[in-house]
Amino acid sequence: MKIPSSYRYYKMADLETVCNIGQKEVANLLEPFADLTPTDLLIATLKRNLRMPLKNEKAKSEFIVAPILAEMWEQNQRFKPFSGLTFNIDASKGLKGVCDFLVSSKADISDLEKPVICIFEAKNDAIEDWYGQCGAEMYAARIFNEREGNDIKIIYGAVTNGFTWQFLKLENQTLFIDSQRYGTANLPQLLGAIQKIYDFYK
Length: 202
Fold this sequence. Notes:
Low-confidence stretches: none
Order of helices and strands: HEHHEEEHEEEH
Mean pLDDT: 92
Radius of gyration: 16 Å
Helix content: 25-40%
Number of helices: 5
Number of domains: 1
Number of strands: 7
Largest sheet: 7 strands, mixed
Shape: globular
Strand content: 25-35%
Structural class: alpha/beta
């Protein structure tokens, strides 16, 4: 069995063979939830940033995803996003590498601490190609939490190309993939979907 060298090389087939995690597509993974009105600052920031050339993952991460997660932090100060952290959990399974965004529910911290409750990955192409990477990072987050004595049963995640977002949920040994997609074209709905995840951990 070939082990991926890092999160980035994980495919859905690797999740099953290496981590014993299956997949299941479900409709309306996060519904019902209420839309969340964005601040004028977020609207203005995205309007400005979307005029820039967003030709790679880094640009989309910085100019679209980061402002959205900063907005969610402002409205939910308990949930803190960390950007670009090295998250080495189990090298023997290839569960190592850098995550675009990890969200911790630990307030007032400068370094990552348990529990990690959500992973966001910003990509430049077809988001369905990256479920494996995001799922591997979610699995690693669960191991991280367990090692630190926090037995959180469910980890959420999302893969986005900046404009379109698709949410995932890891529960037991199944990665649930939402058939519904959200996007910046309907910002209140997208923020509401993220808020639904945060509310789960309150």
